[in-house]
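User: I'm putting together notes for a lab meeting next week and I want to include a structural view of one of the chains we've been expressing. I don't have a solved structure, so I'd like a prediction I can at least talk through. The sequence is below, exactly as it appears in our construct file.
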Amino acid sequence: MPVIDGDPLMAWVNDVEVEPSYRGRGYGRAAMLLGKREARALGMTSPALNVHGQNTTARSLYDRLGYQVMPQQMRKPLLRLCP
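Assistant: Thanks for the context. Below is the predicted structure for the 83-residue chain, given as structure tokens.
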């Protein structure tokens, strides 16, 4: 669990998935709210998560729940060397 901004009490959400046939019924939202309550009960200061930029459905949910974008990752492709 990474420590961001010197906050060792930040709870990390690692994996949330709702079966496709049950999506859009509020289960993801309910899971996130339950996780927030559990983290608070354990004395954690805030929940955090990673989400792929192209996952617009999940990002929309997290936006509605008040999550804010934190530092971004960066990458650089390596050139392939000819054998």
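A couple of points you could mention at the meeting. The longest strand covers residues 10-13. The two ends are 39 Å apart (CA to CA).

User: Perfect, that's what I needed.
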